[in-house]
Amino acid sequence: MTPVELSLALTPRSRFDLIDVRALTQDVHGGALDGYRRRLYVSRHTTAGFLPQGLAARLTARPEAITSYLDLFRAMFPEGAGYRHDQLELREELAPEQRAAEPTNGDAHLLFIGGGLKSCVSYDARRSCPAPLVELDGTYKGTPRKREATIVGYNDEIEVARTTLRVPVSMHPIEAVNLKRSGLGFYEEIEALIARHGVTKGRVRLELPASEQAASLTVNEYETLLMQHDLAEVLRNPLRFAAEKARHAWDDPGAVPAKALGYAKYDLVHAMNRLVDVLGLQTSRIERLIARALEVPASRFLRMRRSVDLLISDKAIPGQGRLVAGTYQAPILVQWRPPATTTREVQVAITQLH
After folding, report:
1. In angstroms, rounded to a whole number, what is the distance separating the alpha carbons of residues 218 and 324?
2. Which of 62, 207, 275, 281 could cysteine-pair with 68, CB 3.0–4.6 Å?
């Protein structure tokens, strides 16, 4: 069977929402995906994404578990906690009319990155679990934002190319590198491989080799204030913005720092314990993750994302596969300790879907 690609328009009901894309696809497109063993779910948004199937299945199996999971990270990245990304008067790339309409959503970007959301995931269609799109910024001033998901049904994939690319990085301890940046050549090399092997429907996996430590990959908006200030603050201290939000709970400025940090830790641990209780667990990977997140600096907080996937599609130009991404999406290499040399390696694997 030839892979089939479908589009789905989505309407969030609230700022934080869960939309079962699997069920909605069935409602809108009927049996168009029947007979396909696997599905790629793709979001072109930087504040709405999918969880890996294993984690999604575990969380959706119990009522309130996925909400509790998100509450865990919302405790770390509360709305309106003084993010530089939200100081629109500093956003020089925005025109005056854009500043008036731009949502303040620094928390949603950091929750996407820190909560392990992905823009492209592969699910086994033979498993009956939902495919929830996790929406983190679904409404603005009461109006739903326009969202879209892409779903590709396929049965197999064959690797057609593999290479290792080197990315220049600085020796600064904390840095975020836009792999889509013009002049870097990273995207151009991948596009050349796609064209050389004639891939029309496929997937690109970017992965850090075991030798690359204190680094991670994500797909998000590479906005200067978000990457160089807000994300950098999180890497130095994961509870930075939780404590900032807590500052407003007291009137005594002299007592703020210690009280705020203590409150933030309590709030985070409380959220973590609630999640563990909902899942019926005594100990878990999530607990270990939060234990690491409570360390300052966040030396391993982002390590869980060592790879990201990107969709290749020829829907725009039949027969010519290109990388698919939303307007503001870019793969980003993040480091929180300087490397041994001035470059880092990223492994690239390209597959053709069948």
Report:
1. 15
2. 275
Q: Which of 221, 207, 204 is nearest to 40 (CA)?
A: 204
Other C-beta atoms within 10 Å of 241: how many? 24
Amino acid identity at 82: G
DSSP state of 145: P
CA-based torsion, 189, 191, 192, 194: positive or negative: positive
Q: Report how far apart, in Å, the C-alpha atoms of 133 and of each of 50, 59, 223, 244, 279 are.
A: 5, 13, 23, 29, 20
CA distance linking residue 167 with residue 53, whole number of Å: 30
State how far the Cα of 296 lies from the Cα of 307, in Å rounded to an integer: 24
Distance CA 97, CA 233 (A): 29
pLDDT along the chain (354 residues), means of 10: 96 95 97 96 97 91 83 84 91 86 92 91 95 96 94 98 96 92 95 97 97 92 94 82 61 49 51 58 55 50 74 96 96 90 96 98
**b/e 324-346 (16+ beta carbons within 10 angstroms → b):** bbbeebbbbbbbbeebeeeebbb
pTM above 0.85, yes or no: yes
SS3 193: helix
What is the dihedral angle through the alpha carbons of 47, 48, 53, 58, rounded to the nearest 10 degrees?
80
65-76 and 256-279 helices, crossing angle to 10°: 170
| Secondary structure element (H or E) that encloses residue 140, with its range | strand 139-140
Q: Nearest-5° angle of CA 319, CA 221, CA 215?
A: 100
Cα 79 from Cα 321, distance rounded (Å): 39
